[in-house]
Specification:
The chain has about 60 residues and is mostly helical. The chain has a single domain, classed as Methane Monooxygenase Hydroxylase, Chain G, domain 1, CATH 1.20.58. Helices cover about 90% and strands about 0% of the residues. The chain has 2 helices and no strands. The protein has helices at about 1-25, 30-65. It is elongated and about 55 Å long.
């Protein structure tokens, strides 16, 4: 889980930096794209993480039966 936590921290940091840069230059299409890409990567990772945790929970319930 440590690798997952580090990856999540990295994605959050990238998204935060992209957002801050965009706030300094809100009309920049390049910074808008950078933020959109960082946010999409973070969203995809979060979805994957939620699915993994859900599957683990489901497997634990099956083993408990």
């Amino acid at each position: 889980m440590d690798d997952s936590n580090q990856h999540l921290k990295d994605l959050l940091s990238q998204t935060d930096l992209a957002f801050k840069a965009l706030m300094r230059q809100p009309n920049s299409s390049e910074l808008t794209n950078a933020y959109d890409n960082a946010k999409a990567e973070l969203d995809a990772y979060m979805k994957s993480l939620r699915n993994t945790l859900s599957q683990r929970k489901h497997l634990q319930r099956q083993k408990a039966r």
